[in-house]
């Protein structure tokens, strides 16, 4: 289908697509148009990565806006939201307004009312529904990207319930659901009353196979030699082969070498593999690429003063990198950008990179197809769906002649098993996880509090519009779990059942705060137990033991250390400490204590590299814990106010300290825009102890404290209201110079830096 023949889209769109080199649609895109995606019809599209899913979404959204509507694009991760927002901004030249929102779970997002296309995470959309955002009623099209994640135990129920609520709010809402891997796409189409587009068409071939011995065995039964040198790792041999240019028989280069994406099962393995593979890549780098990689490595070192940052920079200088959730957002973005530009030639990653972020490569290598599962007590195989998501990263149209996805086998039996288990297998069916009690207690309260149900029958009627009900025969299990959840919410004064179901004032607050009701109950009980002003450790421990905080686990030998600490600081705990004989509860208590101690260290200005070393984590983990603690303490402050408790000032101070990573005496200074934890400490040590002193400070002292950075000093003085912020002719006062050695001045890279988004549960 020619782009000029697409019906019901804005007049400018065909010419816009042609200018981008798109004269005709891919077959799946044409099928979507024929199914009515530009004319308001619901659609479930299960098509491979790189086959044009995003354009299908754009056609639906732009056609909807052209009819006077408003479109919403739901993604699973904040990183993916940023990527899609940047992609959709191209349409602003035609008068469309595009917005993105991923944080601030207490807001109705009123500023989004003026946007035509909105990109948001499912958690953000859920919070908008809970907070009664009126503009949701104006939606005419919703796109759910990576819809197979309804199968995810953590995120899935939120996406499922959110789609059900949006469809209830707007009866004629067009729903478009996208995924590369759905084993039961027809079932999802039935749930969403949608047409089904199920295609395996790709613009370039994806070859799947297994490497074993000295050969690559492909799914069509063919083999080709891929030798492993003496002393060489199997993965290194495959990466080296990918880097080799394709040549004709006369030696002429037909295609340049490609990039590789290697999936492993742990952060440690990702980092170790990147270090080794850099040695493979280095011989393929020319002087120009080495110089460009050195620049990227320097940027990486500027992100944080940690061993992780240095290790990543060292690998990048050799043309390799690692990628996992322990990296800071700045680290991940630098790696992803350099990999997309084919500057970095190989990335070793945990499966987080397979979750939708645009990082294609010539060859995907699934090195580890098992990972540790604590619930199973050992290593378990990855799902077919997850491995196929990884494989789908292989091959980019216009950049690669083909894509190749390779698993690695160490025996002939394993070779056969991998073909049966993954290469020839279909993805597992997507199953709803809504009936699990932790998910249901959150969504039952929100459903009642936001007015979607006011009786038990009304609640069950709403739940019957979910995927879970579609996949389950009869109501018995749903009724049983729902009744248990209602009873729990009533016991904790979140709901009442007098003639129906009504959320209490406290229940409304908990729902608006986007808390798991069990987290709210834990916080309330803890604050009620306080006899004196809570300490920061006590408050950090309180929020660390809620279900909404992912605790640090105890490493081997740490039980005794944290048991001793627990008894030393027992008086600070908010609530009774469990007995050592209650094994599981006591271990959870100690894990929360370890998490709280990390937060206390951060709020006591311990250096980032010391924290990562002490707790065996990455800079991204610090960021995640700080964000979660900030959000939960903000919720605790609201709950304390709701209940009339006297501890709100203590909670507010603990929250501010962990947000900014500072001791109490620096709180006033870090409130100045541009002053983070390191700059505040330097200013304080130079005798400039608060905003008022900074406003009247001698400029030479300020310049010295800020390491001679004139533009930074001018900006900070301007922000604080100094009468003359100019640094023209000012020289640093040597007596005010900082004495903290070689630490960087990069406040913007610290884990406690404030961003436009409110702190959240993590990197959705």
From TrEMBL:
One of the GO biological process terms: DNA repair
Molecular function, one GO term: DNA binding
Pfam families hit by this protein: DEAD (PF00270), Helicase_C (PF00271), Helicase_dom4_arc (PF21280), HHH_5 (PF14520)
InterPro entries given in the database record: DEAD/DEAH_box_helicase_dom, Hel308-like_dom4, Hel308_SKI2-like, Helicase_ATP-bd, Helicase_C-like, Helicase_Hel308, P-loop_NTPase, WH_DNA-bd_sf
Residues noted as binding ATP in the record, renumbered to the chain: 29
Segments for region (Disordered): 715-764
Gene3D superfamilies membership: 1.10.3380.30, 5' to 3' exonuclease, C-terminal subdomain, P-loop containing nucleotide triphosphate hydrolases
Classification via SMART domains: DEXDc, HELICc
Keyword terms, alphabetized: ATP-binding, DNA damage, DNA repair, DNA-binding, Helicase, Hydrolase, Isomerase, Nucleotide-binding
Domain of life, per lineage: Archaea
Every Helicase ATP-binding domain range: 34-200
Biased composition (Low complexity): 739-753
Domain spans labelled Helicase C-terminal: 238-446
Catalytic activity: ATP + H2O = ADP + phosphate + H(+); Couples ATP hydrolysis with the unwinding of duplex DNA by translocating in the 3'-5' direction
Family, per entry: Belongs to the helicase family. Hel308 subfamily.
Known function: DNA-dependent ATPase and 3'-5' DNA helicase that may be involved in repair of stalled replication forks.
Known partners and oligomeric status: Monomer.
Protein name stated in the entry: ATP-dependent DNA helicase Hel308
Organism: Halapricum desulfuricans
Classification of source organism: Archaea, Methanobacteriati, Methanobacteriota, Stenosarchaea group, Halobacteria
């Amino acid at each position: 289908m020619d782009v000029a023949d697409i019906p019901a889209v804005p007049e400018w769109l065909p010419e816009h697509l042609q200018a981008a080199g798109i004269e005709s649609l891919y077959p799946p895109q044409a099928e979507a148009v024929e199914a009515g995606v530009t004319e308001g019809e619901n659609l479930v599209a299960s098509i491979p990565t790189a086959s044009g899913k995003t354009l299908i979404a754009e056609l639906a959204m732009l056609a909807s806006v052209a009819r006077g509507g408003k479109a919403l694009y739901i993604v699973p991760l904040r990183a993916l939201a940023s990527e899609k927002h940047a992609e959709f901004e191209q349409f602003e030249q035609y008068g469309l307004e595009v917005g993105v929102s991923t944080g601030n779970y207490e807001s109705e997002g009123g500023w989004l009312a003026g946007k035509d296309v909105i990109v948001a995470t499912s958690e953000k959309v859920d919070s908008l529904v809970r907070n009664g955002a009126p503009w949701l009623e104006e939606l005419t099209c919703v796109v759910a990207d990576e819809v197979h994640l309804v199968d995810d135990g953590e995120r899935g129920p939120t996406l499922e319930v959110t789609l059900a609520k949006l469809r209830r709010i707007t009866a004629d809402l067009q729903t478009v659901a996208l995924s590369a891997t759905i084993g039961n796409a027809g079932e999802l189409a039935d749930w969403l009353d949608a047409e089904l587009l199920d295609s395996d068409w790709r613009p370039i071939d994806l070859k799947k196979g297994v490497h074993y011995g000295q050969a690559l065995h492909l799914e069509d039964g063919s083999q080709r030699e891929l030798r492993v040198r003496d002393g060489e790792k199997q993965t290194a041999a495959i990466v080296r082969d990918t880097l080799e240019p394709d040549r004709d028989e006369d030696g002429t280069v037909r295609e340049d070498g490609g990039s590789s994406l290697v999936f492993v099962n742990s952060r440690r393995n990702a980092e170790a593999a990147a270090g080794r593979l850099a040695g493979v890549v280095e011989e393929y780098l020319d002087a120009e690429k080495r110089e460009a990689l050195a620049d990227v490595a320097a940027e990486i070192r500027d992100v944080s003063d940690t061993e992780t940052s240095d290790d990543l920079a060292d690998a990048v200088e050799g043309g390799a990198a690692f990628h996992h959730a322990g990296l800071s957002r700045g680290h991940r973005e630098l790696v992803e950008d350099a990999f997309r530009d084919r500057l970095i030639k190989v990335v070793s990653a945990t499966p987080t990179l397979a979750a939708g972020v645009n990082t294609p490569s010539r060859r995907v290598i699934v090195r580890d197809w098992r990972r540790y599962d604590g619930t199973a007590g050992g290593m378990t195989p990855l799902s077919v769906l997850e491995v196929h998501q990884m494989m789908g990263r292989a091959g980019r149209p216009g950049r690669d002649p083909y894509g190749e996805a390779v698993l690695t086998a160490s025996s002939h039996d394993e070779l056969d098993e991998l073909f049966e288990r993954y290469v020839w297998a279909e993805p597992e069916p997507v199953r709803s996880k809504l009936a699990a009690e932790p998910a249901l207690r959150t969504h039952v309260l929100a459903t009642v509090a936001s007015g979607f149900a006011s009786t038990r029958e009304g609640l069950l009627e709403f739940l019957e519009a979910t995927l879970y009900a579609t996949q389950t025969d009869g109501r018995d299990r749903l009724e049983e779990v729902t009744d248990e959840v209602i009873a729990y919410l009533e016991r904790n004064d979140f709901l009442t059942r007098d003639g129906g179901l009504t959320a209490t004032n406290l229940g409304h607050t908990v729902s608006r705060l986007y808390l798991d009701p069990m987290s709210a109950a834990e916080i309330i009980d803890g604050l009620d137990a306080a006899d004196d002003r809570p300490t920061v450790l006590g408050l950090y421990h309180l929020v660390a033991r809620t279900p909404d905080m992912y605790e640090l686990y105890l490493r081997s030998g740490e039980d005794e250390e944290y048991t001793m600490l627990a008894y030393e600081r027992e008086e600070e705990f908010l609530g009774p400490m469990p007995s050592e004989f209650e094994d599981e509860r006591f271990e959870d208590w100690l894990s929360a204590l370890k998490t709280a101690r990390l937060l206390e260290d951060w709020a006591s200005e311990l250096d980032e590299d010391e924290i990562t070393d002490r707790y065996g984590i990455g800079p991204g983990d610090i960021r995640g814990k700080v964000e979660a603690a900030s959000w939960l303490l903000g919720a605790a402050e609201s709950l304390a106010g709701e209940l009339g408790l006297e501890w709100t000032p203590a909670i507010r101070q603990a929250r501010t300290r962990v947000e900014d990573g500072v001791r109490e005496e620096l709180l006033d200074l870090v409130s100045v825009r541009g002053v983070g934890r390191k700059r505040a400490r330097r200013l304080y040590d130079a005798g400039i102890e608060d905003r008022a002193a900074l406003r009247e400070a001698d400029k030479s002292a300020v310049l010295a404290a800020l390491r001679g950075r004139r533009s930074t000093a001018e900006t900070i003085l301007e922000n604080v209201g100094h009468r003359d912020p100019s640094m023209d002719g000012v020289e640093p006062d040597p007596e005010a110079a900082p004495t903290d050695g070689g630490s960087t001045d990069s406040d913007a890279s610290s884990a406690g830096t404030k961003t436009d988004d409110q702190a959240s549960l993590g990197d959705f």
